[in-house]
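hey
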């Protein structure tokens, strides 16, 4: 009426995407995840046939530009995709989300033969997944805060012929046991802070000296294999360097402004699944003279869960839109979106579990158990919660 009315919904193409992914998550992904989760062999926990189907639907390459075989998806579209996948299984959602992160770094920073290697292996192979290698035992989530004293312990030394030698150890790496290509961050100039002393490299699983030394046996995200990786004198040709020397870390942070935002969306997907499981249980479980949902305290609990989920998603979507459309984008929003979404997801999952009573701790008898375990992982995955709080505080001080 004489002005622009804000619209906070999704455009038709993303509504269609959400419905397509949700159907896939409920009908195919969730039943398979429940069946595969506790397999002894880690390689059998990944639903590789569904990875192939996700590839055929264009989701594994969703973030690549069209000329490289992708859809050039927006940050908001990525959030919609991973939330709905996580509604079916968080482990599978993280597997895809890691591919979405790494492919954007490689698409923008790789060149020459390295770019060709990436496109040949990743785009053409529907089972090829990617991994990004930040976390180390000594540095943990310090890379989120990025203070002046922070350096990666993994090192990269440049030889006279222009090649590089990697040495070090990374752990807790999503897709670490199964990836075909890795984006590895290493200290290439220890005299500088990480932001301008870290280089990024493309490492292939068959590079001599690279080894997967351990698959972590987690209680969460079991459909995604995290692993520890060792780099023992891994010699890389000059074109495996991503971008310019010493700028890989800064370049990746610039490219992945939405990384923490999609992490928040992933956490919300599983929390929403927990809420829906609790809602259905409250409608069918009769106790105290009637269905649980007719009891006022249960209704209030469900109301709080619904309100918190909606509020957290609003922040995630707003941040996802702003990161690409707001010229005055506030970089605190990415960490804020992850922080709020992950905390909300944990509260909602625990509250949902409370409605199941003792059934919630019977790990094969109620799906809510898996939701709680999975949501717990995002208190640390993609950066610990307090690391994001400290990052927000740091940026706030810098604005003063």
């Amino acid at each position: 009426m004489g002005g622009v009315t804000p619209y906070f919904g999704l455009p038709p193409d993303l509504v269609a995407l959400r419905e397509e992914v949700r159907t896939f998550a409920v009908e195919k992904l969730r039943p398979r995840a429940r069946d595969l989760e506790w397999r002894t062999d880690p390689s059998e926990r990944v639903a590789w046939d569904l990875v192939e189907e996700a590839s055929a639907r264009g989701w594994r390459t969703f973030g690549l530009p069209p000329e490289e075989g992708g859809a050039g998806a927006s940050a908001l579209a990525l959030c919609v995709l991973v939330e709905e996948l996580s509604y079916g299984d968080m482990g599978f959602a993280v597997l895809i989300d890691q591919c979405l992160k790494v492919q954007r770094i490689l698409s923008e920073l790789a060149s020459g033969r390295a770019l060709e290697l990436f496109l040949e292996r990743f785009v053409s192979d529907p089972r090829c997944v990617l991994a990004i290698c930040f976390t180390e035992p000594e540095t943990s989530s310090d890379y989120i805060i990025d203070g002046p004293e922070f350096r990666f312990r993994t090192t990269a030394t440049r030889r006279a012929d222009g090649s590089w030698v990697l040495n070090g150890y990374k752990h807790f790496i999503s897709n670490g046991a199964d990836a075909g290509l890795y984006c590895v961050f290493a200290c290439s100039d220890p005299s500088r802070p990480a932001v301008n002393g870290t280089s990024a490299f493309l490492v292939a699983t068959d590079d001599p000296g690279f080894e997967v030394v351990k698959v972590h046996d987690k209680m969460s995200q079991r459909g995604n294999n995290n692993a520890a990786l060792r780099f023992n004198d891994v010699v890389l040709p000059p074109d495996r360097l991503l971008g310019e020397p010493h700028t890989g870390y800064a370049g990746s942070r610039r490219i992945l402004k939405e990384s923490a935002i999609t992490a928040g969306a992933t956490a919300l997907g599983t929390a929403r699944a927990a809420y829906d499981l609790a809602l259905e249980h409250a409608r069918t479980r009769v106790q105290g003279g009637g269905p649980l949902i007719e009891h006022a305290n249960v209704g209030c609990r469900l109301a709080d869960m619904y309100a918190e989920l909606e509020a957290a998603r609003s922040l995630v979507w707003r941040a996802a839109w702003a990161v690409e459309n707001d010229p005055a984008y506030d970089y605190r929003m990415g960490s804020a979106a992850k922080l709020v979404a992950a905390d909300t997801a944990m509260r909602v999952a625990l509250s949902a579990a409370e409605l199941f009573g003792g059934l919630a701790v019977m790990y094969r008898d109620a799906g809510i158990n898996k939701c709680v375990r999975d949501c717990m992982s995002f208190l640390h995955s993609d950066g610990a919660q307090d690391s994001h709080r400290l990052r927000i505080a740091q940026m706030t001080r810098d604005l003063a």
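The longest strand covers residues 164-173. The CA atoms of residues 201 and 399 lie 33 Å apart.
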